[in-house]
Amino acid sequence: MIPKKIFKYILFAILCIGCKKNLDLAPLDKISDASFWKTSSDFQLAVNDFYNGLQGAHNYTENNSDIAFGSGTDVATGADNRSKSNGSYLPSANSPLWDNSYKYIRATNYMLQKAQTSNLGAEIDRWVGEALFFRAYNYWNLVKSFGGVPKIDKVLDVTSPELYTQKSSQSEIIDFILADLDNAISKLPLQSQLTGDETGRVTKGAALALKARAALYMGTWAKYHAQGDANKYLTSAISAAEAMVTSNEYGLYTGMGADSYKYLFILQGDDSREVILARRYYAIRATHNWTRELWFNYMVPTKTIADLYLATDGLPITQSPLFQGYNTLTSEFQNRDPRMSMTFIVPGSTIFFEGGLMQPTYPGFSGSNATRTGYMIRKFLDETVDATQFRGEYDFKEFRYAEVLLILAEALYEKNNSISDADLNRTINVIRSRVNMPPLTNAHVTTSGLNMLNEIRRERTVELAFEGFRRDDLRRWKTAETVLPQAIRGVKFVGTEYQTKYPNLQVGTDIQVDANGFIIAEPASARSFLPKHYLDPLPLQQIQLSNGTLIQNPGW
């Protein structure tokens, strides 16, 4: 049973060090390894622990990219996210991502080893499938950060020569991930086959979604970095995404009508048909503080993401006659894709605060609503008293169906250098229809002088904003070297209602602006992206411990 949050049920005693007598006695305070692994339930208990390795809030950070600004610690490198964004970060001694990923990889390897030596056969196939999924998931987190890493598929001890395994290549790790997922898919149940108390467990859909994500990543990396067979991986991404679509197991969340996108990311969207797999939380026993973190501007949007939202006629704001400009606090939000006002706090809109009060909120430059860009995030702000008091209960959606549709659209275009209107209608336009935005068509792109690939990427960035995809996308598209060195900008200040509202802020002293009067939170002179930044540096301590077999990534 997995009710909202998977807890660690069991602690394994694998090694007994320093025992001098009574070696045949079972531990009195632990379940011994010799007495475990006897039933299917034992394997289920073991796999429950792997759910603690889901990334949760770590996935929801965009401060390492160009669409958000803020601080916090990057889980891969241990660096401050701001230094990760501006390119000033250095190799760290240790990496939480590295350590945790290999911890879970060892645990999954151990369980898979025990499964092979058990006589339970098909009775434990499902739990083997879950273990394979989590081994793939943890390798995925490593490979998208570091590229090639050591591939360990067996249980090691302190004398194992494999402790000094060299790095496998990025494509070899991706191939290993895809093979594990194919094996898992054959063993896992469909979402519709879960019983009520199994909601939240890994399914075929979760394995297919991870396969599609990893294959798209490698396919586009191979295409734009000229490293490998792009079409091989793009075909795999298409196949996995198509299997998700044709399964009819999933669909977009529409339970709150026109506001469904807003509510998807908080309690109302939990366990909806759109959610494929989530890091789960539960009242009292397991909660988080994400709503309050965003209240106090842990992460704030930038002008880059604000300008990506189309006008309601489907045109970019640089072309649409509907765009109202920047002169007032709310003008740039008018006649825009509704997802913008469900992702940003529109100045003056009401937000749920402590005591259950809905109060108007004005992002700006003073008080608790002060931000470096003049923008604040609306997405993920829960509307419960518990969330306002450090006890958020909504889940972090690790995989959702809208991403699968975006993967399918992008992979089809990248493989064929074109996409049909029919394919657009069953992917991107399904997503747009939820917020009543005009469909994307080839005719619209042609007559408006747009670029189809750019529009597919725009849709992905807007739909998945602040869910942790942006930096990885820029790196696989090989556009990071152009995008990330640009200044981080915010709202237009000079000559607007903002300047009237904050008359004491002196331009050039209290606040910096560009030639057009837009806030500069970080100038281009303080930002860089070098070729080495396409991969993160391996943790220095791991290199030191490898006896020379682990080679640092290029440039570091």
What does this structure look like?
Helices cover 38% and strands 7% of the residues. It is mainly alpha-helical and 556 residues long. The chain has a two-stranded parallel ribbon. A two-stranded antiparallel ribbon has the order 3-5. A two-stranded antiparallel ribbon has the order 4-8. It is globular and about 75 Å long.
Q: Reading side by side through the largest sheet, how are the strands ordered? A: 1-2
C-alpha-based Rg, rounded: 24 Å
Poorly predicted runs of 5 or more residues: 1-29
Distance between the termini: 46 Å
- The helix content is 25-40%
Q: Strand count, sense and closure of the main sheet?
A: 2 strands, parallel
Look at the structure and give the mean pLDDT: 92
β content, as a range?
5-15%
Structural class: mainly alpha
Outline the secondary-structure elements.
Blueprint: E1 12-13, E2 31-32, H1 40-48, E3 68-70, H2 81-86, H3 96-117, H4 125-146, H5 170-185, H6 204-225, H7 230-247, H8 260-264, E4 275-279, H9 290-295, E5 299-301, H10 303-308, H11 338-343, E6 349-353, E7 357-361, H12 385-388, E8 396-400, H13 401-416, H14 421-425, H15 428-434, H16 442-447, H17 452-463, H18 470-476, H19 480-483, E9 488-492, H20 497-501, E10 518-522, H21 540-545
Helix pairs in contact: 1-4, 3-4, 4-5, 4-6, 5-6, 6-7, 6-13, 6-18, 7-13, 13-17
